[in-house]
């Protein structure tokens, strides 16, 4: 049971997979580092959490992990104006950072192996998540979601795990036709239907890690199935915007949304 005054401070973002369905981009970089509007997808997800007061992140890494480590090693530089001065003879040069805009984040990067599955990556983080409940999500999905409402729901039911349930968008655009076959409206990938799917954005008790066997365990299979069978998995229904970047077409759609200056996942340029 999560006590009402127990703060949830950490978010785990899975960032170690190969992202094979987006190979046009992930051949060169980890999927969470694919850029939307000049910023990695990972940054967009972290901004969603930060907007709800969570600024401490634990990232299990695998594929091309050095790129994520280098991004955060130079994060302040990436986010700032800078002057490099090489005018003095015999000097290695100086860097002067102007108007730094780095967010007040604490980021722990953990090598969880190249071929480790999602459950295995999570289990390897035991010492980093500690004894308190924590948030967890994937490195390829965004939502206009108030994380604190998910946390409040998790505290209210007292079970071990909460998953955010979302309606899947249609794979194809839909046509609304008039009686004479004129297209009245067209909607690209509308969200609808009665089905609910795993939208990520979990809140988990550390005891969930006991449901995970080892590196080969896929979290979405046996652990979640057992949690459900034990009555320890609850769903927070999210009716608003949610989008997962699985293909190059998905990436282009996110880019188009970002270009409007008002991304539907609530992050500003």
TrEMBL record:
CDD domains reported for this sequence: G1P_cytidylyltransferase
Gene Ontology MF: a single term: nucleotidyltransferase activity
**Keyword set for this entry?**
Nucleotidyltransferase, Transferase
Q: Where is the Nucleotidyl transferase domain?
A: 10-242
A Pfam family that this protein carries is: NTP_transferase
Note the superkingdom of the native organism: Bacteria
PANTHER family assigned to the protein according to its UniProt record, in alphabetical order: GLUCOSE-1-PHOSPHATE CYTIDYLYLTRANSFERASE, GLUCOSE-1-PHOSPHATE CYTIDYLYLTRANSFERASE-RELATED
Q: What is this protein called?
A: Glucose-1-phosphate cytidylyltransferase
